[in-house]
Design a protein that fits this description.
Blueprint: E1 11-18, E2 24-31, E3 37-43, E4 50-52, E5 58-59, H1 63-73, H2 81-98, E6 102-104, H3 105-119, H4 121-131, H5 137-148
Parallel strand pairs: 4-6
Antiparallel strand pairs: 1-2, 2-3, 4-5
Helix pairs in contact: 1-4, 2-3, 3-4, 4-5
């Protein structure tokens, strides 16, 4: 494993843990050159459904894109990285269990919103306000009223 800090090609595994649900392995590594530590995750390589965009294009599912949008919605919110990872794991499990080869991007957005609603109401409202492209303040008010209930 290459060090993300200095690029040195030799690192040492300091600690290995299996996730609670057994879906991935977390490894703490230390670079033998700069001695900085970092974490890697080992997951099974699976084929997710292709994402069908609104314009009809088909793209590969990218965990990094989902993670980035969740991080943006959860910015400065009291939600841990472990909670975010668990939410993405639940989403990915649902995607795989659907057993389909293609899925509309809107369905991915709905899955993200469902997980954000469980994690943090403010993040849910942030994401939904961008994702749903509200036309006026009444749509936004309806969403906030829904969250308050």
């Amino acid at each position: 494993m290459k060090c993300p800090f200095c690029g040195h090609s030799e690192t040492q595994v300091m600690e290995t843990r299996v996730a609670e649900d057994g879906d991935f392995i977390r490894r703490r590594r230390q670079c033998t050159s700069c001695e900085k530590r970092f974490t890697t995750y080992e997951r099974a390589d699976v084929n997710f459904p292709a994402i069908v965009k609104k314009d009809g294009r088909r793209i590969d599912y990218e965990r990094a894109k989902v993670l980035a949008s969740m991080h943006l919605a959860l910015r400065k919110r009291p939600v841990s990285i472990d909670q975010i990872d668990a939410a993405i794991e639940r989403m990915e499990e649902k995607l795989l269990n659907l057993g389909v080869r293609e899925i509309p991007s809107t369905r991915i957005g709905e899955l993200v919103m469902r997980e954000l609603k469980k994690l943090d109401k403010v993040a849910y409202v942030r994401f939904a306000s961008v994702y749903r492209s509200f036309e006026d303040i009444d749509d936004f008010k309806t969403l906030v009223d829904e969250v308050r209930r």
